[in-house]
Amino acid sequence: GDFMKHAVGDQTPEDLRTTFEKNLQQKIGGIAARPEAAEVVTCQGRTAVFCGGGGGGSGNDVRVVHVGPPSESELVLAYLCEGMYDALTQLMGGSADRTMVLDNLELVFLLIDEHCDGGIILEVDGTKLAGGGFLRDEEGTTD
Fold this sequence. Notes:
alpha+beta, three-stranded antiparallel beta sheet, two-stranded antiparallel sheet, 5 helices, 5 strands, globular
């Protein structure tokens, strides 16, 4: 879609993204979402689902957020979000804390690439994502 890709009035696309991200953070900032159950909010006419980020000293201070158009099914977005958070937690050794995620950012980007591509859902199962082909040892493959 064209969401935040074109200037509106005197706001650049970057201004629109920044405003959206700030508004979304204000909406979800005070909500403690469980990792296994995504929460749903609406922000600027878009549906956003998120899970994780409970903190509370457990080290799980990372949130996974999926944003979709108003017409998108909340259940589909929730399923995507929960699968991604599950896979991220598995890849990070059971705890999704920001230091671990930042230290392994290349794996996170590969995980996102395995999860969805150009708006097309490729995989939602957290276990399959975490054990995906991008983590296989190339020496064990055959041509």
